[in-house]
Amino acid sequence: MKKETRVVLALDETDGYKAMKIVDSVSDYIDAVKINWPLVLSAGPDMIGRLAEITDVICDFKVADIPNTVRLIVENCVSRGASAIIVHAFTGDDSMRAAVEAADGKADIIAVTEMSHPGGLMFTAKHAEELAKMGVENGAAGFIAPATRPDRISLIRSIVGDKLILTPGVGAQGGSASAAIKAGADYVIVGRAIYEADDPRSVAKQICEDVKSAL
């Protein structure tokens, strides 16, 4: 993925037409768009390919299954034009290896270490360091760490070295783009603050400026 604005749009919009319109309007302020089940279930998996014609697409399906199922999901995402797929690390090293092998160098596998919402403190945060180490050992190209807890970004950075760190939780969840970048994030992930705004382009521009202030 390119690394220009450092902003990834989390597009959980469920209207396919509106989703495309938003991405068109902010495309020069984002490096990628992250899509999850809400958009795919409502507008269909062809959205991956349609969006990939505009910008890099991260399939945030938080894949968490046995190796064979992981392989099938990742292969499908890659064949539709995804640049990256987010998978859970807690399923273990065999599932992580299956994801990396299925991507076959055509897309990045991004492993979740710790989730950004308060509930993330209950389970994922307690094992984030182990999950990060396992991901590194098994070929993950990047990791998810929470913008809502910048100190955790710094911790994950100390474990994963120069691999990518993407940080959700900026905007509606209260995380700061500049704080996340200063803590060691490569990209900030912003959703509702942009796609629910009256003027998504203006908000995306403001977030880009906040990121630049931290570089």
Report on the architecture of this protein.
With 215 residues, this protein is an alpha/beta fold. The chain has helices at residues 16-26, 37-43, 46-52, 67-79, 93-103, 124-137, 150-160, 177-183, 192-195, 200-214; strands spanning 7-11, 32-35, 56-63, 84-88, 108-112, 142-144, 164-170, 187-190. The chain has an eight-stranded parallel beta barrel with strand order 1-2-3-4-5-6-7-8, surrounded by eight helices. Strand 7 (164-170), helix 8 (177-183) and strand 8 form a beta-alpha-beta unit. The two termini are 18 Å apart. The model has no long low-confidence stretch (mean pLDDT 96).
What's the SSE blueprint?
Elements (H helix, E strand, L loop, with lengths): L6 E5 L4 H11 L5 E4 L1 H7 L2 H7 L3 E8 L3 H13 L4 E5 L4 H11 L4 E5 L11 H14 L4 E3 L5 H11 L3 E7 L6 H7 L3 E4 L1 H4 L4 H15 L1
Parallel strand pairs: 1-2, 1-8, 2-3, 3-4, 4-5, 5-6, 6-7, 7-8
Helix pairs in contact: 4-5, 6-7, 7-8, 8-10
